[in-house]
Amino acid sequence: MLVTSPNADLVLPADLIAFHSTDHPLYIQHPSSSFEVAIRPLDELTLEHFPISPCSFDCFARRPESVEVDVLPESAVNLATLSEGEYDTVRHLLWLPEIRRFVVWDSLDNSVRVFGPRVTWSQIVASPFRHLKSGPDGELHLRPAYVTTAIDSMLRPSADRHTIQMLRGLHRMTLRDRVILVLMASMLFALGFMLVTSELPAISRESYEEIRLGMDEGEVRRIMRAWPGLYRHNYKDDGSRGEFQEIYEGTISGNRHHFWGSGDGWIIVYFDQDGKVEYKLHGYCLGLKPSHPERWPWWKRFLNRRLLHSNEPSFIYTTF
Question: Is 123 strand, coil or helix?
């Protein structure tokens, strides 16, 4: 429930107003650590400008607590300052009225971690060290500005009379124009077919172990079954992803490397001056079972592919 603040034209959670209307401490310190929470008084709560950066790199699927916005919020209410030692970066507990969520803002990179929609002020102040020290799980994502589906484009009002006239004049095209149109349609069909049936990277412990030091680039690509890059595909998260872990082998002497990333984690391979593997790394979660998309039929790869979902490029791969 949201109410208007009595001292300013702010819409704040009702339990936040109730908290400040009673005698509560505004300074909380963890008894066994240097973690501190300094809560701002109600009469100091105003809309302030905070530079906010969206989450741009996420190898795993977006969490249920995450929020997608068309425009990044520019104003927030600074509720508390979080501190953990003299050299800790400045962090604040903010209320974002535009999305009606509590977030933790970090001054190091202007990123925010978003609380779930059911997390209330009362829950946070009742156990501040559990909620604020480890941080919330959600992220703030900026929705792409382009239209994602053809249906959305068709439903948009259009007054482009030149387009209508062009469509009406298709039956008057010359033979040359018809040939060009057929060739363009064939190219688009071939491109779409390659995209639908293209492979997704085989990111798993088995692939990591197949890659051996001294292999050339072609052998590595045949094991990974896809060009390097960040791929987006769905997977079922049962909440038991567990602890994150990285394993690696070899040493790095140069900068040339290939990266494969997806919902299954990532594999990074470095090559020496002769184009041979000199270092390999695999990052994954212990409780997350690899989906092995290299074993899927083409229709399953198509159904699990999330196209036009982010600003990262979509990759097309044909077996060689």
Answer: helix
Contact 270, 278 (CB under 8 A): yes
Edge-first strand listing for the sheet containing 244-250: 229-230, 257-262, 265-271, 277-285, 244-250
Identity of the residue numbered 168: R
CA distances from 186 to 149, 170, 190, 314 (A): 21, 18, 6, 21
Q: How far apart are CA 133 and CA 34, in angstroms?
A: 11
Q: How far apart are CA 111 and CA 50, in angstroms?
A: 10
44 DSSP 8-state letter: G
Dihedral over alpha carbons 300, 306, 308, 310 (to 10 degrees): -150
Q: What is the mean pLDDT of residues 184-189?
A: 89
Cα diameter, the chain: 85
Instruction: Report the alpha-carbon distance of residue 190 to residue 188 in Å, rounded.
Output: 5
Token readout for 112 is 């925010």
- Percent of the chain scoring above 70 in pLDDT: 73
C-alpha span between 244 and 286 (Å, rounded): 6
User: With the C-alpha atoms ordered 82, 22, 136, 73, is the resulting torsion angle positive or negative?
Assistant: negative
Euclidean distance between CA atoms 121 and 108, whole angstroms: 25
Q: At residue 248, what are phi and psi to the nearest 5 degrees?
A: -150, 165
DSSP 43: G
Please work out, in degrees rounded to the nearest 5, the angle formed at the alpha carbon of residue 30 by the alpha carbons of 99 and 2. 25
Q: How do the domains of the chain map onto residue ranges? A: 2-142, 205-303
Kindly report, residue by residue over 102-151, the tens digit of the pLDDT.
999 888 888 888 998 888 999 998 888 888 876 677 888 887 654 444 44
Place of tokens 């391979």: 269
Q: Is the pLDDT score of 319 beyond 50?
A: no
- What pLDDT digit, counting tens, does each position of 51-110 carry? 888 876 554 456 778 888 888 888 899 999 988 776 677 889 999 988 899 999 888 888
In this prediction the pTM is 0.45
pLDDT at 15 over 70: yes
